[in-house]
Amino acid sequence: MPQGRKPDFKPIPTAADGESQIDRCMERLLGRSIPAQKFRAGQTVLQAGQKPRSLAFVHQGRVMVYHVLDLRRRRLSRVMGPGEWNGVDALADAPFGGSELIAAENSVVSIIPAAVVLESIRRDQTSAVGLVQALARRATVAEHDAALATFADCRARLIRALQTFSGSAAAEPQDDGIRLHLTHSHLAEAIGSARETVSLILSELRRAGVVRTGRNFLIVDLELLRQQVPQYA
What we know:
Blueprint: H1 16-30, E1 37-39, E2 44-46, E3 54-60, E4 63-68, E5 74-80, E6 85-86, H2 88-91, E7 99-103, E8 107-113, H3 114-123, H4 125-151, H5 154-165, E9 171-174, E10 177-180, H6 184-191, H7 195-207, E11 211-214, E12 217-220, H8 222-227
Antiparallel strand pairs: 1-8, 2-7, 3-6, 3-8, 4-5, 4-7, 9-10, 10-12, 11-12
């Protein structure tokens, strides 16, 4: 890369591009007869900190996935909806679980032992191959995002987060844009910044007509948002 040139922070394939394949594979592997539990809004579905042994599969509702670094620091990494799952750390037999799952609304979720999933993978090798490929896509996108974040300021990271969440379970398509069921605090947790900084950037984007904010939600004009993506020559 020429000296002084930064990577182009333009839209790249997001994790959502591979998520549908991952979720279809998981559905085939586990079938539909998975015991499910009901969780109230704000209730912890899976807790971080202990050795992960289970996966979470969402049937109804929305679930926030946080990557927990320590008692004071956590990052909102995903918002899961029906048909989505989390628990790669359990499949990897990781010694420490870094993911904390919290129901964003009343939700129905199956908590599945990793051993059950691994046994299903052994029985269905075709689905297993698809699962590996889809997980590899997720890892590739995560690595790319991490590299971009190294060079991006808070504004660029927030724009990237808005793009990513617009393709997630946090989004609700409307005639006038994409309604995101996220607060300023959620977005601050997603990009590792202060809530006040996020509010200032959203005020700038609101004046440009890119977003409209409401109580616990915002509406994004994706076309105008793409025009805000920094381009480095």
